Amino acid sequence: MSPSKILFKLTGSIACYKACNLISKWVQEGHEVQVVASQAALKFVGASTFEGLTGKPVFHDLYEDGKQMAHINLVKWADITVLCPATANTVNKLAQGLGDDLLSSLFLAHDFKKPYFIAPAMNTAMYRHPATQGSLQKLEAWGINILPTGEGRLACGDVGEGKLLEPELIAKYVDHALARPAETSTPKLRFLITSGGTEEPIDGVRSISNFSSGRTGSEFADYLYSQGHDVSLLRAERAMPATELVAETTFKSFHDLDHGLQELLSTQHYDCVIHLAAVSDYTVDHLLINGEKVDPGTDTKFSSDEDITLNLARNYKIVDRIHRYSKNANVLLVAFKLTNNATEVEREKAILHLLEHSLADIVVQNDLTEVNPEKGQHRAAIYSGNRLDKHVDTKSDLIQSVLQLVSQSIQEKENTDAALS
Ligand SMILES: Cc1cc2nc3c(=O)[nH]c(=O)nc-3n(C[C@H](O)[C@H](O)[C@H](O)COP(=O)(O)O)c2cc1C
Q1: How far apart are the C-alpha atoms of 145 and 187, rounded to whole Å?
Q2: What is the distance between the alpha carbons of residues 163 and 166, in angstroms, rounded to a whole number?
Q3: Ramachandran class of 66: left when φ > 0, alpha when ψ lies in -120 to 50, beta otherwise
Q4: Residue 68: its pLDDT value, please?
Q5: Across the strands, what pairs with 101?
Q6: Which of 45, 62, 89, 92 has most ligand 1 atoms within 8 Å of CB, for mutation?
Q7: Average of pLDDT values for 98-111?
Q8: Residue 41 Cβ < 6 Å to ligand 1
Q9: Which of 8, 121, 156, 177 has its CA 20 to 30 A from that of 186?
Q10: Residue 156: active-site member
Q11: Residue 122: CB within 6 Å of ligand 1?
Q12: pLDDT digits (tens, 9 = 90+) for 336-370
């Protein structure tokens, strides 16, 4: 990793002492670290410690003689900014666009092409406060990387969320951004990936599901993350997870997945949704037990001595609603069509049906007979609209080709929009 310029901001939390380990690590690795501390942060760790660790004086005063343009110059100087620990006060201030000290003025001058990480540290109630949660969501929607918090015993004695994420994990997130090749020509994109199979409950111990392992979804997530993109994975509880650095939420049933997608797509800006989840076409509507109608329920276990008939209700197609759910009207949709032992004509018909109803931009079609994970075989046809783009034979080829096509399609959309405006 080549040396980078890290603007390291600290605010007033006991966790300031943990941030010293991070500063020390990056300095030892050859990065240039400039500390900016709030007045409150300096009550927890003295300026001499930061100066000793970085070999540079600490910036903390907006109006310091000879350094009055620091609020602009430091932004230009830095390759990346890390705000750690971030207090509730500062998180809320930044989200309001206030600039009443050096640290917040620097954020107002922030160049959004450069990565900005926020590692919150606060008491659970402060973290859960609607103002703080709203601010974190707002900042995230602006493209700021909000790191999760750890859970455990807090300095105030409470136990819960809000604890500063362990410095080793913060380092993993930031190191990943630092390692993103500067010469990369592809812009950083925000992806939402769904993966794994839904489970439709019959009773508390039985469900209707499918064979999806979620492996392809987690591989997509890991690869896109490794390429420096922002990735969120919405996966089935039993599906394969992605690397711990990818933000994940889980779902169980069709309705959980539908709800999770609506929530994420309506509140966050995603450039692309890769919809790999294997969604149940039916939900258990009711059962007939010895001829008597009974609702499915997760707090019971039906006896295996009874004659049971399952009555299924047809689900709508979630993929058809993705564009409607998305606050980004230009979101690019990658949809998947799995067939089983289908002829060419049947495959084409299935693809056209999917395209017509979902308005997917890219469709990946594969047939169960041509997928063999043991042999590394994963034949798929990739369509851009209704035009066959290419055939691929392996998973890695599939993932790389989809990313290339997504980047290209987004670029084309942007060019068209620019030409029209
Ligand atoms: C001992 C002590 C510990 C504190 N720890 C935290 C904390 O972990 N997180 C937080 O949001 N505020 C914490 N505060 C409150 C902040 O220091 C206070 O809101 C301050 O105004 C933050 O200013 P700043 O955001 O400009 O650094 C703490 C206060 C004290 C006295």
Answers
A1: 16
A2: 9
A3: left
A4: 61
A5: none
A6: 89
A7: 94
A8: yes
A9: 8
A10: yes
A11: yes
A12: 999 999 999 999 999 999 999 999 999 999 999 99
Reported as a pLDDT band with limits 50, 70 and 90, residue 419 is confident
Q: Which of 16, 20, 156, 272 is catalytic?
A: 156
- Residue 392 Cβ inside 6 Å of ligand 1? The answer reads no
- The pLDDT value given to residue 183: 46
Q: Residue 107 Cα, ligand 1 centroid: separation in angstroms?
A: 19
Query: Cβ(272)–Cβ(216) under 8 Å?
Result: no
pLDDT category, 117, cuts 50, 70, 90? very high
pLDDT at site 298:
80
- Find out whether the beta carbon of 38 lies less than 6 Å from any atom of ligand 1: yes
Q: Are 84 and 117 in contact (CB under 8 A)?
A: yes
Helices and strands, number each (H, E), in the chain: 13, 22
Which amino acid would we find at residue 70? A
pTM score of the predicted model:
0.69
Distance CA 22, CA 275 (A): 37
User: Ligand 1 pocket, 11 CB below 6 A?
Assistant: yes
Tokens at 168, concatenated:
């080793």
Query: For residue 240, what is the DSSP state?
Result: P
311 strand-pairing partners: 286
Alpha-carbon span 307 to 305, nearest angstrom: 7
Mutate to test the pocket of ligand 1, among 9, 18, 58, 87 (most ligand atoms within 8 A of CB): 87
Per the rule left: phi > 0, alpha: psi between -120 and 50, beta: everything else, 343 is: beta
Among 249, 132, 143, smallest CA distance to 192 is for 249
Structural domains of the chain, ranges and CATH numbers in brackets: 5-179 (3.40.50.1950), 190-283+315-420 (3.40.50.10300)
What is the pLDDT averaged over residues 163-171?
A: 94
What CA–CA distance (Å, rounded) separates 207 from 199?
6
Helix (H/G/I), strand (E/B), else coil: 304: coil
